[in-house]
Amino acid sequence: MSISGFIFSGGLSSRFGSNKLLHEIDSVPMGICVYNNLRQALTFPPSFLGPQVSHNEFANHTFVSGSREGQGPLGAICDALEHATTEYVIFAPCDTPYFSSDSFIELAKFRRSADVVVAADESGPHMRHWLLSCWNVKSVKDQLLNSYLSGERAIHRSISNLQIAEVKYPLSQVRNINSPHDLQ
Known about the structure:
The chain is an alpha/beta fold. 28% of the residues lie in helices and 23% in strands. Strand 2 and strand 3 form a beta hairpin.
């Protein structure tokens, strides 16, 4: 069963102060850290979901942008699902460099257990990280597109009647880097 991946890279990075995709961690852009970790769990190399970035590190990478560009995470997910050519899709934000390749592989292993498999942290019940997730394209695509067209923008409300599975990870792995302070 084939699986592809998309890395959310279209945000404004307003809290961070500069493009998070390009911020270096140990001399590697954060977006490339996520790409390298995600690549291990996939049949095909992942694509970045957002506008093309002109930076040498990203010259040979694929960027996908759709009609919902700039319309939030649900819009980005819908754009990706319309571009998907595989049965399953894994999503990852560009600001989760500590979600390891082993964690992505584990998330992918659970893909047949639900319509959506979401990473959750151990800080409490249902602390789900919807943008670190694996989706069955066939079982979710129409519902998400219809939800988006009806005006819904919240992921959790758009999938309320789908079968959801959680895979728990330490908070240190699933945390987003929203400001330079988060890297300390």
